[in-house]
Design a protein that fits this description.
This protein has 402 residues and is α/β, with parallel strands linked by helices. Helices cover 40% and strands 15% of the residues. Strand 8, helix 8 and strand 9 form a beta-alpha-beta unit. The longest helix has 20 residues.
């Protein structure tokens, strides 16, 4: 169960919205970004200023369905046969249009949207002088796209039968994201690195607010260290999260009395790496309902991702008192040498050296475990996240509508 939202009402607090509209093409409640959406809405609901949420579906029992404009049965679902960039793009456009229609009712004085989902709503908010925040799950598009993102041409029969001019309008292109950034009163980043990508793009510092993320510190708690060296990866098994590099590093090290456990959905792009490198000391769990059990049974969490905002799994691992090996691009949870080790992106030698260091020097692990749990309790809780988000709302209200 998640930490309870603040008990005191914020409805009359100075500087906060009176009637907030929230929009996302994701679900409310679940894992990853869906969990973040749930915590965002719990803040405004507890504060008494949640007007309406536009979302794909509500799976959170403490967010009343009456407060949610669900897109679950929207006609956009008929496009679910399309490749991912096209179907997800269609959902994002639909969320933006639905939120813009809500704003046109004149009932709202604030808008909270997510990048890629919000252009139509932000245009409407600007026309009405309504302040807004735009949630950025990763980095500024000029950094993220240049390094990691491609939109393949439409495949399958859809690419052969449906008019290309229709399909080409569906994916979220960089120019859409850039316009959203310009129109938002305040952009919400989730790490120092993500903030730096916006400052490097010329954004004024007062228009960028770092919220980080959090973990449920009652669900995610330390366990007893295992008797063998067990490295754990939690997340989607894709190349962007560095799973290919981790598999190669583990194969190269060939450590005795050691095990690598991979928890998460196996994507097709990683299957060849599993076939090549996953030997008897690699265990692929797949999706896990009780991921906390895997954290508690591990020695170290290894997450060499190339691009994140604030990787929620690093918050969860810290709450479980796990030392971590990760990249600066994964967020701010790990302080190098304190509660884990930071390695450069795509650096196989550095990743091998970091794993071997913790394997060869078990005396480093107990103080790192204590520091990990302390860091989670001090900064990466959902209570802390909601407090930071409340301050972001205050700043956006003070800046006013564009």
């Amino acid at each position: 169960m998640n930490n309870p939202p603040p008990a005191a009402s914020d409805a009359a607090s100075a500087g906060l919205p009176r009637n907030l509209l929230f929009a996302t093409s994701a679900r409310i409640g679940g894992i990853g970004l869906e969990l973040c959406a749930q915590e965002q809405l719990r803040l405004s609901l507890a504060g008494g200023y949640l007007g309406k949420a536009v979302a794909y579906q509500n799976r959170c029992a403490d967010i009343p369905d009456a407060k949610v404009h669900s897109l679950r049965w929207s006609l956009v679902r008929l496009l679910s046969f399309l490749d991912r960039p096209y179907y997800y793009g269609a959902k994002k456009h639909q969320a933006g249009r639905a939120a813009a229609a809500e704003l046109r009712t004149g009932r709202y004085d604030f808008f909270h949207g997510w990048a890629g989902d919000s252009l139509e709503a932000l245009r409407e908010a600007n026309a009405r002088g309504i302040p807004s925040v735009l949630d950025i799950p990763t980095w500024h598009v000029d950094d993220g796209y240049r390094r990691h993102e491609t939109i393949p041409p439409p495949g399958g029969w859809a690419g052969r039968v449906l008019p290309r001019r229709w399909l080409d309008r569906l994916p979220v292109r960089p120019e859409r994201l850039r316009e959203e950034y310009r129109r938002a009163t305040l952009v919400l980043t989730r790490s120092t690195y993500a903030t730096e990508t916006f400052l490097a793009a010329g954004f004024a510092s007062e228009r960028v607010f770092n919220t980080d993320e959090g973990a449920d510190i009652t669900r995610f708690q330390p366990g007893e260290p295992p008797t063998i060296f067990r490295a754990l990866f939690v997340g989607a098994l894709i190349r962007r999260k560095g799973v290919d590099l981790l598999l190669e590093a583990w194969h190269r090290l060939d450590l005795r009395d050691a095990e690598l456990v991979l928890v998460g959905h196996v994507h097709e792009e990683i299957e060849s790496f599993l076939a090549k490198y996953a030997k008897e000391n690699v265990r692929v769990v797949g999706k896990a309902e009780r991921v906390e059990d895997h954290y508690r049974a591990a020695t170290v969490h290894v997450f060499p991702s190339q691009c994140e905002g604030c990787a929620k799994v690093t918050c969860e691992a810290a709450a479980c008192g796990l030392p971590q090996i990760t990249t600066r691009e994964s967020g701010d949870v790990v302080l190098d040498g304190v509660n884990g080790l930071n390695v450069p992106v795509n650096d196989l030698d550095a990743l091998c050296a970091a794993i071997e260091r913790l394997y060869r020097h078990p005396e480093l692990l107990p103080p790192m475990r204590e520091a990990a749990r302390a860091r989670a309790l001090g900064h990466f809780t959902w209570d802390g996240y909601r407090s930071r988000l409340r301050e972001a709302y205050r700043r956006a209200m003070a800046l006013g509508g564009n």
